[in-house]
Sequence to fold (866 residues):
Amino acid sequence: LEAGRADDVTTVVGPLHHSDTGDVLEQLDHNERLALVRLMGDRFDFSALTEVDESIRLEIMEELPNAAIARGVAGLDNDDAVSLLEDLEPHDRNEVLSALPTFERLSLKRSLDFPEDSAGRRMQTDFIAIPPFWTVGHTIDYMRRERDLPDEFYQIYVVDAAYKVLGTVPLDRILRSLRGTPIESIMNTTLVLIDANEDQEEAARQFERYDLVEVGVVDENGRMVGVLTVDDMVDVIQEEADEDFRLLAGVGDEDVSDTTVDTVRSRVPWLVINLFTAVMTSMVIGLFNATIEQMVALAVLMPIVASMGGNAGAQTMTVTVRALAMRELDGGRLRRLIRREVVVGFVNGIIFAILIGVVTALRYGDVQLGAVIAAAMIINMIVAGTAGILIPLTLDKLKADPAIASAVFVTTVTDVVGFFAFLGIAGLWFGLF
Amino acid sequence: LEAGRADDVTTVVGPLHHSDTGDVLEQLDHNERLALVRLMGDRFDFSALTEVDESIRLEIMEELPNAAIARGVAGLDNDDAVSLLEDLEPHDRNEVLSALPTFERLSLKRSLDFPEDSAGRRMQTDFIAIPPFWTVGHTIDYMRRERDLPDEFYQIYVVDAAYKVLGTVPLDRILRSLRGTPIESIMNTTLVLIDANEDQEEAARQFERYDLVEVGVVDENGRMVGVLTVDDMVDVIQEEADEDFRLLAGVGDEDVSDTTVDTVRSRVPWLVINLFTAVMTSMVIGLFNATIEQMVALAVLMPIVASMGGNAGAQTMTVTVRALAMRELDGGRLRRLIRREVVVGFVNGIIFAILIGVVTALRYGDVQLGAVIAAAMIINMIVAGTAGILIPLTLDKLKADPAIASAVFVTTVTDVVGFFAFLGIAGLWFGLF
Fold:
């Protein structure tokens, strides 16, 4: 089909929902994608590009002439257009912008002036604002008459002459009210508004918290400049959770469709850090060369203490990182959580100290060795619980994303403490120094 | 304030949004919570209970008399009521249900008959359904007249006599159309409907994919039985991502507010599994007792190979688990991903083999030891990439949640292979068996 039959391709792809067109694009290989977009020409729905992985989007956008991008972008909602343009090189972006009609250009420029990942970048600039003295009938007539309404909307904004928001009216309330009802009397006046400079994650949390569907966005002077709708926030929530995931595992900003080279590049830094900490850990073991030489069983057993600590630390860390991400921790809860994690570490320490102590004593016929590994296990489990909570907290206090670096620090701590405690106690106990 | 001044408490807590009331409850301790709910009596907004952690919800519900729960639940939306009742013991649940008015009882019963975590449990049973031959004017008059409308709604459903959905009309479209317009001519006929028995995660994916705000839910005969709204789906998306997180780290179904005992109980199973695999790994090391005895440097270096493999495996595994959760993997993509991960493992293996090989050779003044650890590193990194993708895939094929058990399996594989390859190659090379 990719042999140039433009009309056939358009007949097949044209009527698809843009999410589905996006899927089609992801299925194709590099050349097929470009061929598809070129063949369809102006009949290609650019909003499909907002649905594909970033690497594919950039790949397509870079190959297309800026004039074609401008034509495609002109037909999009403001927020979709922004998300396509923000990834472009500044030079290309300006060329596309200058090819657009004045009104679109200005409104896109204004959105792009807000910081990256802010509510201003995600908002739509089409919304309905009416004065408070209108009646329901007046409002309905206005909407019946006016051709240039947003594609979809869920509430109407009541504003004063300076575009400051006085209230909001959900559409269902308009439909339930008699024509003569003054808008002022049915509007919601407990307002949830979002600052255009606010981070999109913060905005998403407001949506989640107050079950919002649409919310007004205001600039620094309190003037209404756009609206955020819940479908965009759903993507933000999904991305945010995903980001924490990836950061914890050190896989950077990867997509499944990334190339091998990109993937290697994104993963090497994390592995380099891990190599450093692994070498450090191995140097700690190196301190006990003489001890191990006299008692090889120690080398056999030592990874158990380290591994159990690593797992216990990861459990506490995961709980803490997620609680931080969801802003669930304030003073009282935090103290309670720290106390709980230390106690849990202690209790788990006792449980697994007994288990591994007995197993070791039986296997080596040496009760003292069992006691040594048990003692090391208790120490490492308590340290794991403490590190698992304090490390992400400290990173958060230092304004670093706790998801990104916690995992390395926590396992380094549990490895070092695990090996050091076990080999150290053994050395002292058996007089092997 | 908790000294019994019911009116004061009500004045403070009463006007809060139910999310905020939920926060207040979470701040309080066990006795204060109950005191608050009891003091406020019928003025307590039960929807606040849908906003607190499950453990707190159950704690409060168990202490309240069933009659009080019935009074509280009667004022709730169907979906909120279901989410409170589904956690109750069957006996208590039936008692609460039988204390409710007939209409509420039947509609709650019907929702509760759908499987747990299905769309039917999450849906609201209030919606507006009209026949196709009405006009816009007729519809608006109906909504102005009818008192018993849903609290909030975003679209209207056009149904036939058997309640089969023929189309949907967003409210904004009604507001834009003249009174004489037949509903049939403005309704959407490309329908997205969700089966009440469908899993809520599947439903949430539809919302995400098609940017929905509200969608009709139909029973097995295609009759409309309720609607799902996006605010409920936002919670589902959040929970789903969270669940994967927790499963990967082995922290079960924990809340930050869980007690120490609950936390220990939820984490021990995972640690027990880890203890088994750690002992298994240690037995692999035990095979090389004699080798280590002759060359203690091996014991010092071996954790490096295992740790690097473990990290590389976790990277691949995280990407795979998330891709599976988001249904991003079909045949073509899957083959590409497997190929990529194996190649990435090989490339990273070479990079880190050279790094660690050189460091080792310099530190021990022994080029051969450097070559041995380099060879083991390449092997373990390739194995890590392969295991990181094949293990979650296999679990998924076996209908197990890949998030739950992948982490143990992958690290066990990389530990065992890491130690075995390194100690084995060293033993052969230096003739230490």
Summary: The longest strand of chain B covers residues 165-170. DSSP finds 20 helices and six strands in chain B. Chain B touches chain A through 104 residues (CB under 8 Å). Chain B has three domains: 6-121, 129-247, 259-430.
